[in-house]
Please model this.
Amino acid sequence: MEQARGAATAVVFGEALVDDFGDLQVVGGAPFNVARNLAGFGMPPLMVTRIGDDANGARMRSEFQRFGMSEAGLQVGAGEPTGRVQVERTGDGSHRFHILPDQAYDRVQPAPMLGALAGLAEPGPGPGAPSAVYFGTLAQRTAEGRAALRALLQACKAPRYLDLNLRDGQASEATVFDSLCHADTLKVNEEELVQLFDWYAHISPGTADMDSLDVRLACAELITKFSLACIIVTLGPRGAVHYGADGEVTASGPADVPRMVDTVGAGDAFSAVYLYGSAQGWPLALTMARANAFAGGICGIAGAVPQDTAFYQPWLARWHSAA
Ligand SMILES: Nc1ncnc2c1ncn2[C@@H]1O[C@H](COP(=O)(O)OP(=O)(O)O)[C@@H](O)[C@H]1O
Ligand SMILES: [Mg+2]
Model:
């Protein structure tokens, strides 16, 4: 996974955490899933996050190494707990998630982050100016996290990709509002879209028909209200739809999932391909189709990223032979 000289890079801000099943720790966090997928495509991003110097922190670092990612944006806080979500197995085979408060990822410090960002722009064979900034809302649940993200967005003018990823009881509506004000591309799933319609649109249409006039009007209202370039809505087994500021609707899917294992990280896989394809200059319809297909592919493996990075090769071969 060597990065090509002068290749584009992205900046990914937010949580790196473990889903702790008690007897099993799985590395995740939506931003860290996106970052590892981008690295798998040969476009390792600057991942800005914070971990502790504990066993879970070591798990994070070994993922940075496995994916060949620079640790320039990785902050380590001595004695701080590396992000953890306690996963409770319920009797009926499903899971309950307890997102723990006050984790290392809540405390990203601006100064080292800005230093790492400045390093990207240094002259020479480095990646150069970032092609995009990815962020979500979980790492904005504290004032410290919000301040760090604001400092990043001040310093980096690349197009902003917001994957809302609302988690119950975490970021407030005010944080969502502020995030939308800073976003260019907005990615939501169906439930998140319905929530945004409820909060910010004059109409709250159902999402059974994503091409209905009411859905298109409500999306257009969000786009205008927040000066967005576009909204991408992922629809699970129904694929995904892109609403442009020009009123154009571009749908893709459903994805082909020959062998469904789990949908963990499906949205993050989608976002990673969308960011990669945008940096590569792929046409929109092709980017949507490839993001949808790859997200379907991730549904065919256990977890959000592959155990073996050889997983990425056939996708890259397909994408880069098709030109
Ligand atoms: N059950 C499924 N069958 C096929 N593809 C799926 C399924 N669930 C998710 N996907 C793929 O993953 C993408 C994102 O999934 P979705 O569940 O909408 O997002 P999120 O993970 O953000 O909630 C979808 O657009 C689709 O490409
Ligand atoms: Mg999501």
